[in-house]
Design goal:
CATH topology: Maf protein
Helix content: 25-40%
Number of strands: 7
Number of helices: 6
Bound molecules: inosine 5'-triphosphate
Length: 181
């Protein structure tokens, strides 16, 4: 079965609910500075194949806020570590247009070939942080059609509608199609 290379255990826990056989390699790897998540994933897959070999996956995700011209986007990890949710809410002060989306790319290295699976979840930035579940930007993101933030949902509820849940269900299809054990 595929091994997920990440240093973020929360991602692994969400993904394992959809693909129980998934394993994890706990490792932090360098991410290039690029304009799109897709470029970051392409680079990381090549880099990691030299270290790990074949049949692994990675997850690169970002939060894209409309009225901030898609910031933090590809800088989501750095911005979370420096500004955090409070910093994002400060940047959003006085803004009534609060549309945003999460995007996940699952990068697959399988028998020498790279594949990318995408999942997107549209929603809004909350006025204040709410909830204690999940991780990262979950307390400030309200998915479309819901009242609760992701951090007020169980993992199962989040997975049903989230960017990562959508990409993971594509991965489950990939695993089945290629008969990966
Ligand atoms: P990796 O080791 O897998 O790279 P990471 O936490 O650095 O772990 P990303 O670069 O994909 O992962 O994530 C960018 C940022 O976005 C990071 O601060 C995450 O906490 C946050 N993030 C990613 N997915 C999220 C989700 O589903 N809900 C809330 N925040 C999320």
């Amino acid at each position: 079965m595929f091994k997920l290379v990440t240093h973020n255990r929360h991602k692994f826990e969400e993904m394992k609910k959809i693909l129980p056989e998934l394993e994890m390699i706990e490792m932090e790897y360098p991410e290039i500075q690029a304009n799109t998540l897709e470029e970051v994933v392409d680079f990381s897959l090549e880099y990691l194949s030299g270290i790990i070999g074949e049949n692994f996956i990675i997850d690169d995700s970002g939060l894209f806020i409309d009225s901030l011209n898609d910031f933090p986007g590809v800088y989501s990890a750095y911005v979370f570590d420096t500004l955090g949710n409070e910093g994002i809410l400060k940047l959003m002060e006085g803004k009534t247009h609060r549309d945003a989306y999460f995007k996940t790319i699952i990068g697959i290295r399988f028998e020498g070939i790279n594949y990318k699976l995408v999942g997107i979840c549209h929603g809004k930035i909350a006025e204040e942080p709410r909830g204690a579940n999940g991780f990262g930007y979950d307390p400030i993101f309200i998915p479309e059609g819901k009242e609760k933030t992701f951090a007020e949902m169980s993992t199962e509820e989040k997975n049903k509608i989230s960017h990562r849940g959508k990409a993971m269900r594509k991965l489950a299809g990939f695993v089945e199609r290629f008969g990966i054990q």
